[in-house]
Write a structure and sequence with these properties.
Structural class of chain A: alpha+beta
Number of domains of chain B: 3
CATH architecture of chain A: Alpha-Beta Complex
CATH class of chain A: Alpha Beta
Order of helices and strands of chain A: HHHHHEHEEHEEEEHH
Helix content of chain B: 40-55%
Radius of gyration of chain A: 20 Å
Oligomer: heterodimer
Largest sheet of chain A: 4 strands, antiparallel
Strand content of chain A: 15-25%
Distance between the termini of chain A: 28 Å
CATH topology of the largest domain in chain B: Methyl-coenzyme M Reductase, Chain B, domain 2
Largest interface: A-B, 51 and 57 residues
CATH class of the largest domain in chain B: Mainly Alpha
Number of strands of chain B: 6
CATH superfamily of the largest domain in chain B: Methyl-coenzyme M reductase, alpha/beta subunit, C-terminal
CATH superfamily of chain A: Methyl-coenzyme M reductase, gamma subunit
Shape of chain B: globular
Number of helices of chain B: 24
Largest sheet of chain B: 4 strands, antiparallel
Radius of gyration of chain B: 25 Å
């Protein structure tokens, strides 16, 4: 019987959503044009070439190496791209994803990625074109909401602050705004530099939709203590790590 | 006990988040609101920031070189895009500016560290044996008193024995002195009261009995070298300065020959054989001498803090004061400055001792434990619950769920602890200290700390930052490790313990857990009775019975430190 990954325990919608994010089987909700993505990432000008740190691998005359033969390089590695980042921030008020699940999602579903997980932000570093693929995937799917998640290279504390009166996650650098037509647009790139044109991120999810799709436990939505299986699983992890240190077997 | 009990943080968060402070326009609303108004007023909304801005401008003008300028933040977007709010020091009603909880801006914090760094404990018995057995000199209470009078002249920098000597000005070193203590009540009665730390007077009766039984008939000197000396040199200087002056005082008080061989024995006793530093020397890669913060074990810090002798019936309070002291010393000064540099650790560390959020969580836990485990959180040894993994899981899980739900029900509490590392520290300190109080076992409390981290991470899908999380993912494995270098009792671990060396935000919590285990049992001390007695002394500038209140006084600019040098500088 083929192995079927279980990804995550639990019976609540939050647990189900975590499994979806981790499996990569997420719903596509919007599209972002390649040039728009490049603009808000802020690493290069739209249409410009990728900067490289070494010649394409095919031109480098690589040594005989079984690992190199076994592992197909990613497109970015093949081309010699530099390593760049995308950094997501998710509000704790039913933001669609959470840092650890974003990291799991990237590591499980993409190759050549280096996810970093913090409390307010989640960074994915990879060869530039590979990183853009991950970023596009996450922005276009239910892993992203224009109001409750955001691309922020710095000042990420909005994740835990009260929402603005318009329901958008506070941003000290005011990178994205909900405009009068109900669309959220980015005025600045990830690190807060003004960009040449506004980039449309789409309409925010309704509060009900966000509550349904979120991957964070909250007492006013899906309470953590209501998912007995998740807590039991945490206890099991704790038990085993503790006992292993006491008596490794 | 009920989950909807009055929250200890409610009053302070209401003032912080629904009342205007300075001109921040934070008027109205509720602390449970999920939506806030953001006026983006910048630094001018806050009185202290305004004062700092003005100072920065004056300094630039005076020296012709720019300095502090809040508009340099984020390329011209200053702090204060959200409301800048003050904080309350937990356990007090002292409202302070958060800038004033940085140790640079807080004289009380500086003095707490000064008072620890400049302190060492020196045994008298080895020296007395040398005098009596080797030299045949009689040692009596009278000679001890005379020696102590000599030492209190010499320790600050007064000359003895030698002629035409440079001396330090007494007004610059007036915080320097030496007292003695002993477990021998008969000898204590004979010591001049000005020199004595009276165990019977400073400690409750049951604690005094424990301490005297541990110390026995030995006699110890609590020596505090001048703050100004310690600041100019380092912690390792403390025993050297002390030993030189102790040696000279013995020579003078007992009319010894300055060059006789027995002096070397006295010197060896004072410098090595009979001396206790507050902190151990660190290995070369961290390269600090004794009496620097990285070498101060959690047990020593638990003993340095004196709340246990003035409020022994409230183990939670004792642990909370150790949290405050530990977060300040280990996070703000040790990790924040010695190890890392920068100023950011303060914002992080203060979460554990401001606005009563941790206090609320821990006192909830105390109620929970007392209800479920028949008063196990009360002081005592017969009422403790057995330290098993099942107990750790039960108490820690309840504590963590309660704390997490507070952040979810009170968005202002979440906003106050806007970094996940802040929340993680607070939640785990509560869970760990509660488990330690209930079981009387520090390592059971530490186990609770790590379970709390796991639970927290899965609830919110986030925890702290890379390095923070790494250490908490693997920490459970070393709590009861069979390997001695990993499974050390918590009291003997310290900031330099494997995996703790860059363990930001944890070490105050660890010290509190060590303290909580013993406070829960009603122990007079956590690991070293000598350290506990040494700091049971109201003559020290910093009041170690109430560190959080002292930090508040420092922030309000009410604390008078030692080691000031205004005597020798031009008057302003």
């Amino acid at each position: 019987m083929a192995y079927k990954p279980q990804y995550y325990p639990g019976a609540t919608s939050v647990a189900v959503n975590r499994r979806k994010h981790m499996s990569g089987d997420v719903e596509k909700l919007r599209e972002i044009a390649d040039d728009d993505l490049v603009m808000i990432l802020g690493h290069r000008a739209p249409g410009s070439d990728y900067r490289s740190t070494h010649p394409p691998l095919a031109e480098m005359g690589e040594p005989e190496c079984s690992i190199r033969q076994a592992v197909e390089p990613t497109p970015g590695a093949k081309a010699g791209d530099r390593v760049r980042y995308v950094q997501f921030v998710d509000s704790m008020y039913n933001g669609p994803s959470v840092p650890y699940v974003r990291s799991y999602s990237a590591a499980i579903n993409f190759r050549g990625v280096d996810p970093g997980t913090l409390s307010g932000r989640q960074v994915i570093e990879a060869r530039e074109r590979d990183m853009e693929e991950v970023a596009k995937f996450q922005i276009e799917t239910e892993m992203f909401d224009p109001a409750l998640s955001s691309l922020r290279g710095a000042t990420v504390h909005g994740h835990s602050l009260r929402l603005q009166e318009d329901g958008v996650m506070f941003d000290m650098l005011d990178r994205a705004r909900l405009e009068q037509d109900g669309i959220v647009r980015m005025h600045k790139d990830q690190v807060g530099r003004p960009i040449d044109k506004k980039v449309e991120l789409g309409k925010p999810m309704s509060p009900q939709e966000a509550a349904k799709r979120t991957t964070i436990f909250r007492v006013d939505n899906v309470a953590y203590r209501s998912d007995k299986e998740v807590i039991e699983w945490v206890h099991r992890v704790f038990d085993q790590r503790t006992k292993y240190g006491f008596k490794p077997e | 006990m009920a989950a909807d009990r009055k929250k200890l943080f409610a009053k302070h968060l209401e003032i912080k988040f629904t009342k205007e402070h300075g001109t921040n326009k934070m008027e109205g609303g509720k602390i449970t609101d999920m939506v806030g108004k953001y006026y983006r007023l910048g630094v001018d909304q806050n009185p202290r920031k305004l004062e700092m801005k003005k100072a920065g401008q004056e300094i630039a003008k005076k020296r012709g070189l720019v300095g502090y300028n809040p508009m340099m933040h984020c390329g011209g977007i200053p702090l204060g895009q959200r409301a800048l709010t003050p904080s309350f020091v937990s356990g007090t009603d002292m409202m302070v500016e958060i800038d004033d909880l940085h140790y640079v801006n807080n004289a009380a914090m500086q003095q707490m560290w000064d008072d620890i760094r400049r302190t060492c404990i020196v045994g008298m018995d080895l020296a007395h044996e040398t005098l009596e057995k080797r030299l045949g000199i009689e040692v009596t209470p009278e000679t001890i008193n005379f020696y102590l009078e000599t030492l209190n002249h010499a320790l600050p920098g007064g000359a003895v024995v030698q002629e035409h000597m440079v001396e330090t000005h007494p007004a610059l070193v007036d915080d320097c002195y030496c007292k003695v203590f002993t477990g021998d009540d008969e000898l204590a009665d004979e010591i001049d009261k000005q020199f004595l730390i009276d165990i019977n007077k400073e400690f409750p009766e049951d604690q005094a009995a424990q301490i005297k039984a541990a110390i026995g008939k030995t006699t110890w000197q609590a020596a505090h070298i001048p703050t100004i000396v310690s600041r100019t040199t380092d912690g390792a200087q403390t025993t050297r300065w002390m030993a030189m002056q102790v040696g000279m005082s013995f020579i003078s008080a007992y009319s010894m020959c300055a060059g006789e061989a027995a002096v070397a024995d006295l010197s060896y006793a004072a410098k090595h054989a009979g001396v206790i530093s507050m902190g151990e020397m660190l290995p070369a890669r961290r390269a600090r001498g004794p009496n620097e913060p990285g070498g101060i074990s959690f047990g020593h810090l638990a003993d340095i803090i004196q709340t246990s002798r003035v409020d022994p019936e409230d183990p939670a309070h004792i642990a909370l004061e150790v949290v405050g002291a530990g977060c300040m010393l280990y996070d703000q000064i040790w990790l924040g400055s010695y190890m890392s540099g920068g100023v950011g650790f303060t914002q992080y560390a203060t979460a554990a001792y401001t606005n009563n959020i941790l206090d609320d969580n821990l006192y909830y836990d105390v109620d929970y434990i007392n209800d479920k485990y028949n008063g196990a959180a009360k002081k005592g040894t017969d009422n403790k619950v057995k330290a098993t993994l099942e107990i750790v899981k039960d108490i820690t899980t309840e504590s963590t769920l309660y704390g997490l739900e507070n952040y979810e029900k009170y968005p202002t509490a979440l906003e106050d602890h806007f970094g996940g590392s802040q929340r993680a520290t607070v939640l785990s300190a509560a869970a760990g200290a509660a488990t330690a109080i209930a079981t009387g076992n520090g390592n059971a409390g530490l186990s609770g700390w790590y379970l709390c981290m796991y639970l927290h991470k899965e609830a919110h899908g986030r925890l702290g930052f890379f390095g923070f999380d790494l250490q908490d993912q693997c920490g459970a494995t070393n709590v009861f490790s069979y390997q001695s270098d990993e499974g050390l009792p918590l009291e003997l671990r310290g900031p330099n313990y494997p995996n703790y060396a860059m363990n930001v935000g944890h070490q105050g919590g660890y010290a509190a857990i060590a303290s909580a285990a013993h406070a829960g049992r009603g122990d007079a001390y956590a690991v070293n009775p000598l350290v506990k007695v040494c700091f049971a002394d109201s003559l020290l500038p910093f009041d170690f019975t109430a560190p959080r209140k002292e930090f508040g006084r420092g922030a309000l600019r009410e604390f008078m430190p030692a080691g000031e040098r205004s005597l020798i500088i031009p008057a302003k």
